[in-house]
Amino acid sequence: MGQSAPSPSDNNVRPRRLNERLKEVAQRLKVEADGEPSPGQTVERSLHLSPGQDPWVSSTLLAVLIVVSLVPTATIGVMLWQGVIRTPWSIDVAVGNDSQPLEAQQTSTPSPAAETLQPKQDVKALSVTLTVPSTIEAESGKESPFGITLNSADPPLRSSITIQGLPEGTTLSDGRPYGNGGWTLKPDEVSDLRLRLPKGVSGHTNLRIALVGADGSPIAGAATQLNVANPPISRPEEKELIAGLIAHGQKMIDVGYLAGARGYFKRAAEAGSADAALALGATYDPNFISDIGVKGIKGDLAEARAWYERARELGSVYAQEKLEDLKHALPVAAEPVPAPNR
């Protein structure tokens, strides 16, 4: 019986598996390498090609597909080789080879930035000290030395020295005034510094001296007490005038007129007489008023203490004793309150 002709349904190619497709590709490559295929191969090949399709076109298309599929893989391989990306197992190996955790490594490893946080200028500034005398003796109307010493010949850059608490009208031989009772100098201006006080200034003043940086922050500081005394009376006419004022004041005390005596003593004390300041303080001293037996005059402890202190500043050797006596002074009696009229 002869073989029947193939039906149209036989032209439909059933789906093939991957291994079958790979075998077909291998056979095609072999055919292209060996030359003309055998009759059986030609028949088999023709079964899998669509009518009119060139086998070279199919081979080229397959090669292009293979190359395109390999491009992502090659790209990832190059990135792994250059270290652009890291695989999970490479990270685990790197961590496992280190004996300390990441936090400990960061803590133990010194940071270059941390070493430069504090400039060298600031480190040197910490060792600078400023020294002044504990007291400065001065005289109103005259110049007096004001010794300020820095232990460093090269102070911090753009630093300055400030002085606060100066009496009004006081000037220095260098520097510039600022604010109320303030003065500022450069570190190289403190050598042979002179202080000049205006006339009429006396007493004790606390001064604050500081070395400050360019941003105004304090670097070093010191304090001193300025003791100012009026100049001694030198002209004969002034001595005679003061002696006459004290004599008139004493006459007022002899007659019990303390208010008049205070006026004479005050003028002489303001001229710089320590004896007049001491006598003026006595006119307010309750102990003295009680001793001379003056009636109707009240004492004033605050005024007595102020003028005794002024007498001490002017050089009286009796002022301190009077101040000690004030601590045991009799209390000042209050004025009687008149009864209301009925």
Task: Give the class from helix and strand content and strand pairing.
Answer: alpha+beta
Overall mean pLDDT: 75
Helix content: 40-55%
State the helix count.
Answer: 13
- As a percent range, the share of strand residues is 5-15%
Uncertain stretches: 8-13, 40-51, 92-99, 101-125, 333-342
Using only C-alpha atoms, the radius of gyration works out to: 55 Å
* Cross-sheet strand order for the largest sheet: 2-11-10-5-8-7
Q: Biggest sheet, open or closed, and with what strands and sense? A: 6 strands, mixed
Distance between the termini: 169 Å
The beta-strand count equals 11
Overall geometric form: rod-shaped
The run of helices and strands is HHHHHHHEEEEEEEEEEEHHHHHH
Structural description of this entry:
- This protein has 342 residues and is α+β, with helices and mostly antiparallel strands.
- It has helices at residues 18-34, 39-48, 55-82, 88-97, 102-108, 112-115, 120-125, 236-254, 258-270, 274-282, 286-292, 301-313, 319-326; strands spanning 130-131, 135-139, 143-145, 149-150, 160-164, 171-172, 176-178, 182-185, 194-196, 203-212, 218-229.
- The longest helix is centred in the N-terminal third of the chain and has 28 residues, at 55-82.
List the helices and strands and how they pair.
Layout (H helix, E strand, L loop, with lengths): L17 H17 L4 H10 L6 H28 L5 H10 L4 H7 L3 H4 L4 H6 L4 E2 L3 E5 L3 E3 L3 E2 L9 E5 L6 E2 L3 E3 L3 E4 L8 E3 L6 E10 L5 E12 L6 H19 L3 H13 L3 H9 L3 H7 L8 H13 L5 H8 L16
Parallel strand pairs: 2-11
Antiparallel strand pairs: 1-4, 3-9, 5-8, 5-10, 6-9, 7-8, 10-11
